[in-house]
């Protein structure tokens, strides 16, 4: 039986990075992470009973640990790993730091050793439809992501990609296929981790245990780092609605 590790990745203080962010204030971001942790501690699905919180800017995690101790009504197991690795090459970007953080955090995690799969989520966001997604994934799957290929409302993608706000892997598959993938960023025209994920996974399309398009919408709730508009803005909700219809009527239209 699959045993899941809800893996929250975090960068509370992104000011050492070179990517310009709208939501960059550490106190605002910390509040986002605190709110998301409270949400997952109360999320009524026993498959999220083990949580790993990885932070990569060296920011103190005491308030988050206090929340896990005092506001954990379902008695979920929570593990915190603090790192100081929010850096990347001068011609690199956030993906280098994100993937390196994930590698280092999973290597140190005790909970990783007693689970089979990770549900990697961007730590500031909530995903109310996670249970619905887990119900519809095949037992023992290797990977489940929600690839994007075609044009969506008012936008043409520069390169097919895999959004990394929420991705699911078996630990073995991630280790064999994507571990240390950050070393490939900037090579062969692959600039972003989202592009790298797509290039590594698309050759496996059609294989058993490989899900490259979610069977249902799993929309985030929260504020992205690169714009002020939240994921629940009416314009964004219209995009989500279009995707939901396309999954049913045009499953080959990966928008």
State the strand order across the main sheet: 3-2-1-4-6-5-7
What distance lies between the first and last C-alpha atoms, to the nearest angstrom? 32 Å
Q: What value does the average pLDDT take?
A: 92
**Which bin fits the share of residues in helices?**
25-40%
CATH-assigned fold name:
Spore Coat Polysaccharide Biosynthesis Protein SpsA, Chain A
Order of helices and strands: EHEHEHEHEEHHEH
List segments where confidence is low: pLDDT < 50 over at least 5 consecutive residues: none
Strand residue percentage: 5-15%
Oligomer state of the chains in this structure: single chain
Q: Mind describing the biggest β-sheet?
A: 7 strands, mixed
Task: Using the coordinates above, name the CATH class.
Answer: Alpha Beta
In the CATH hierarchy, what is the superfamily?
Answer: Spore Coat Polysaccharide Biosynthesis Protein SpsA, Chain A
The whole-angstrom Rg is 17 Å
What is the total domain count? 1
Number of DSSP helical runs: 7
How many distinct beta strands? 7
3D shape: globular
What structural class is derived from the secondary structure elements?
alpha/beta
What does this structure look like?
The protein is of the alpha/beta class. It has one domain: Spore Coat Polysaccharide Biosynthesis Protein SpsA, Chain A (Alpha-Beta Complex), CATH 3.90.550. 31% of the residues lie in helices and 13% in strands. The protein contains 7 helices and 7 strands; from the N terminus they run βαβαβαβαββααβα. A 7-stranded mixed sheet has the order 3-2-1-4-6-5-7. Helix 1 runs parallel beside helix 2. The two termini are 32 Å apart.
